[in-house]
Design goal:
- With 76 residues, this protein is an all-alpha fold.
- It is built from 2 helices and no strands.
- The chain has one domain.
- Helix 1 runs antiparallel to helix 2.
- The longest helix is centred in the first third of the chain and has 35 residues.
- The N and C termini lie close together (10 Å).
- Keywords: Membrane, Transmembrane, Transmembrane helix.
Length: 76
């Protein structure tokens, strides 16, 4: 029974960690690429850019730590 529990726990942890990777992609990498490749004349406030990036990065770190904590529930 512990093997099934461990596999389900690992599956949950992997799902949470993939969500953290998505947060980095959506909130950090995509806006950075958009800022680099925008059309001339468009402007986004740098403070809004940094706040948004910080929030997404914090969410990614929180999800990654939650995934690591989930793995502590593995049984022997």
């Amino acid at each position: 029974m512990s093997v099934i529990h461990n596999e389900r726990t690992k599956l949950l942890a992997n799902s949470i960690d993939r969500a953290s990777t998505s947060c980095v992609t959506v909130g950090v990498l995509a806006p950075s690429a958009a800022a680099i490749y925008t059309a001339p004349g468009t402007f986004v406030s740098s403070s809004i850019f940094l706040i948004g990036t910080g929030i997404w990065l914090f969410a990614a770190i929180a999800l990654h730590l939650a995934a690591r904590r989930t793995l502590s529930g593995l049984k022997q």
